[in-house]
Amino acid sequence: MKKRSYKLSLPRWALAQRESWYAELAARGLRVQKAGAMLTRFAPAPPARLRYRFEVGSDEGGLPAGQKEFYEECGWQYVLNDRPLHLFCAPEQTDAPDLHTDPAALADSLKTLRGSILSQALGTALWALLMFAQLTYLGRYTLELVLADAAAPLVWAILAVTLFRLGWGVYSMLALMRTRRMLRAGAMPRHGPGWRRAALAHRAACALLGAVYAVCLAVSLLELARYEKTPLPETGAGLPLLTLAEVEGTGYRRAAEAAPNVRDDVNQLVQTWTPGAPLGLSAWEAGYADGTQDTVYLVQRYCRLSGAGGAKAFGRGLARRLWLLEPEEYTVLKETPDTLVLANYEDGPGFHQTLLLVVDGPDVLFLHYWGGGARSADVGAAAQARFAEYTAAARGR
């Protein structure tokens, strides 16, 4: 017994072309079973000369009560539901009347298909745009750091798919409008080998979209395969970052040292990807204050943007999202056309918290410290000194 086969679909708006395609394949022994946006499924059957016709249903996708039964009484067999389209077939040698003889009525029924194509294109584009926004730097805090590098090509893949869907939606709408103008002029769609042109255009677009997916997935997998965490050193010498050992001294224990069943993965240095930033580093450290179960942690992020133009806006926006503080809750320690230092220092009984943003040209540093071993302002000053030392060396000052 032959297996079912799958072929790339034709556009939804190309009704006459799809009907001709199904008829030609039926003559070769393949009957259409299910129509999808990308693939159409066919089942083996004895070769037969058939006519296929689509009927456009309502906005909800159904046919009026009794219409399906009436068509079947007239010799048309129901094949499948491709909402809002319904496909019927009948042998060529029968006297079953054609389903569509009035061009104006057919043109009017295509309004439902137009709305369906438009809503699908806009819905897909909106979903993709939301995903793209979530994966960009304003939503990066929702991602696992291990996926940071691998996420970059996926972001661009989502953008490419968004543009493709919008472009294809516009093209489909224009093609459907052209068909409706032809019908209103009194001309019925022509059936025959003309379906091959529509198939070529649609399959080329599908191949292009598939290539985008394949390339971006391959790059993502390669990035993930070469991803490697680096254990944090005892000191941040040579890095634009501090370490918890430098801040807390010996007054803390790492999580795994305090509780052997706790994973120590957070105490790592990782290289991250940020849009427009050729260099990005993140360090996450956590532990417990000596002799207590009080948590201490130090989270830092450094990135060097491609240009200094948007560094301050980038820093303010990301700080607002990561720290959930409004601008008035920060203290502006320094601001010039090329530099910006924002801080929020809190000191209380047994705890100190430092929130710090430093921008110098294209270089941006974020720091969040919570602990009991160092005063918040001292941590901020040490971070600024380390940052200035690193950027000066990197620029050959």
Note the topology.
Elements: E1 5-8, H1 15-27, E2 30-35, E3 39-44, E4 50-56, H2 67-73, E5 77-82, E6 85-91, H3 103-135, H4 148-184, H5 195-225, E7 230-231, H6 244-248, E8 252-254, H7 255-258, E9 268-271, E10 279-289, E11 295-304, H8 311-323, E12 331-335, E13 339-348, E14 351-360, E15 363-371, H9 376-394
Antiparallel strand pairs: 1-3, 2-3, 4-6, 5-6, 7-9, 8-10, 9-10, 10-11, 11-15, 12-13, 13-14, 14-15
Helix pairs in contact: 1-5, 3-4, 4-5
Brief overview:
With about 400 residues, the protein is of the alpha+beta class.
Task: Describe the model.
The structure is a single chain. The protein has 397 residues and is α+β, with helices and mostly antiparallel strands. It has helices at 15-27, 67-73, 103-135, 148-184, 195-225, 244-248, 255-258, 311-323, 376-394, and strands at residues 5-8, 30-35, 39-44, 50-56, 77-82, 85-91, 230-231, 252-254, 268-271, 279-289, 295-304, 331-335, 339-348, 351-360, 363-371. A hairpin with a 5-residue loop joins strand 10 and strand 11. Helix 1 packs across helix 5, helix 3 (103-135) runs antiparallel to helix 4 (148-184) and helix 4 (148-184) runs antiparallel to helix 5. It is elongated, with a radius of gyration of 31 Å. It starts with a strand and ends with a helix. This is DUF2812 domain-containing protein. Keywords: Membrane, Transmembrane, Transmembrane helix. It holds the Pfam family DUF2812. It comes from Ruthenibacterium lactatiformans.
